[in-house]
Each structure stands twice: as C-alpha cells, then as structure tokens.
C-alpha cells in the first residue's frame, strides 16, 4: 500500500451487492469508503465492515450532500433509474437529479463511474456488439437506463455496461439447491455473465487508468444458454438435473418480468477491458466462476 492510496476516498451511491464487493476490495488496500444504502438495516450491516452509509431512497436528497462528498477522490453510482419514472425525479437519473450540483461542485473528485447495463444495446438477433455499437434499447426499463447513462457520460463519468451479475450467495447454485433452476433452451439464444469480483477488478483498473467518458462492456469470455449453465450447476452439486424445456413450452408459465429476460439476444464483446485496461478475468467463464463459488460456500 502506497502513501497515495491511504488518501483515496470512495463515495458510492448505492452500496449494494456489486458496489459493496468493490468497497471491501478497496478498503483492504487502505481506502476509506462512504456511501448510501436503502435501509437502516443495511446501514447497520455496512457499519460492521467499517463503511459509513447514509440512507437514500432516490426521492429526497441527502441532508448534507456537499458535506458527504467532502474529500471524496472517487465517486461511483450503482443506483438504477426509477422503474416508473414518477415522483419529483421523473425520467432523470435519481442521483444526478437530486445531487448533480453537489457532484459538479466537488473539487477533490479525480474519477466518476456509473454501473450501467448491456441492456442499452437492445436486441441484435444474436449479433455481436462492442462499445461502438449503437445504443438501441428495446424495453422501457432499458431506455431509462440508456438515458441515465448518457447523463453520467455528459458529466465525464466512466460507464460500465454490466452483463448478468452472479457471485457468492447470488448464483444458479442457490436456485439449483432449491430446485428452481429450470433448463430452458431457445436455439441460438445465449446470455453473457460476469462474476461480481471481476466487476470490482474492472472498475479498479479504470480508476488506475482514468479516461473520462469511456464506456466498457463488462462480461466474461463465454456466453452460454441457461440450460447449459443450469445443467453444470446441478452437476457440480451432484444433483440430478431437470429435463430441458423448450422455450415455447416454458413461456406459457413465465411472468412478464421473466419474459423480458428473453426479449433481447446479443453477444457482448469484452475486448476493451482486456486490451485497454489490462484486465485479466479471474473467472473467464461460468464454469470457473461456479466452481469458485462452490469452493467458498463449502
């Protein structure tokens, strides 16, 4: 740990699953972390890890945003846009709508980041997309995400377009143990994923090589169908996998939210995080990631 690292301070809007893992990684290297969370219970949980958090519901601003941001060298937002676009925030990103002026006035910030989604690309019929591909969201939720991302980029933020996130406590292994991991097969339809610790690695690499306004696709090296991934999870657990279900049959019992999961089909190109940021993924595919999770969980 260098002397400069001891002076680094991250303020994170939304200390959830991904941002929380990043925070703990930075703290291990001497950073201080402050941020927001959604509940008093979560604030108490973060406090046990030495993280000071302020409750922020996305509708009312922090009581002293300027004071909260004082001394922050890095700022990350992982808060998604509101689902309904209602309230005083409307269609704007809730963090920028309520704290944009305070962020712009913060003189110590060296780096700003925003956790976005690969959903902003929309459906390409299985075609490959990289960071230069058009933003063409196909759902209202993704359209709001794209608008929020654009707001952050105009502020000089770094945008991280995340694929499906998994990690300890949030993986298909949990679903398989509970007997809920269905093996749905839709020919030609694959999904990209990213282990939560590799997200932290990518964000940290960006912090070390700041390029305001840069966009990064964050996914592993191998897109795969849910049937393939779920089958591997059952195999790891030594459980008999359920039969493969054709998408045409599975769709009959899917919720509207579940259907949106299958709405877009695209392959995500992740070369920029490796070529420009020098990231070496700890979990380059779902097999490595799930094996590691199982080892941690015992």
Number of extended strands: 13
How much is the average pLDDT? 93
Sheet with the most strands, sense and barrel status:
7 strands, parallel
* Shape, principal axes of CA atoms: globular
Helix content: 25-40%
Alpha-beta classification:
alpha/beta
Given as residue ranges, the uncertain stretches (5+ residues, pLDDT < 50) are 1-5
**What is the terminal separation in angstroms?**
31 Å
Percent of residues in beta strands:
15-25%
- H/I helix tally: 12
Order of helices and strands: EHEHEHEHEEHEEHEEHEHEHHEHH
**Strands ordered across the widest β-sheet:** 3-2-1-4-5-7-11
The gyration radius over C-alpha positions equals 19 Å
Descriptive report:
The chain is of the alpha/beta class. It has helices spanning 17-27, 40-47, 65-69, 94-105, 140-154, 172-177, 196-208, 226-237, 247-250, 256-261, 271-275, 286-297, and strands at 9-13, 32-37, 52-55, 74-77, 111-117, 128-129, 158-162, 164-166, 183-185, 193-195, 215-218, 244-246, 267-268. Helix 4 links the parallel strand 4 (74-77) and strand 5 (111-117). Helix 1 packs across helix 7 (196-208) and helix 8 (226-237) runs parallel beside helix 12. The longest helix is centred in the middle third of the chain and has 15 residues, at 140-154. It is globular. Mean pLDDT is 93; it is low at 1-5.
Secondary structure elements and pairings:
Blueprint: E1 9-13, H1 17-27, E2 32-37, H2 40-47, E3 52-55, H3 65-69, E4 74-77, H4 94-105, E5 111-117, E6 128-129, H5 140-154, E7 158-162, E8 164-166, H6 172-177, E9 183-185, E10 193-195, H7 196-208, E11 215-218, H8 226-237, E12 244-246, H9 247-250, H10 256-261, E13 267-268, H11 271-275, H12 286-297
Parallel strand pairs: 1-2, 1-4, 2-3, 4-5, 5-7, 6-13, 7-11, 8-10, 9-12
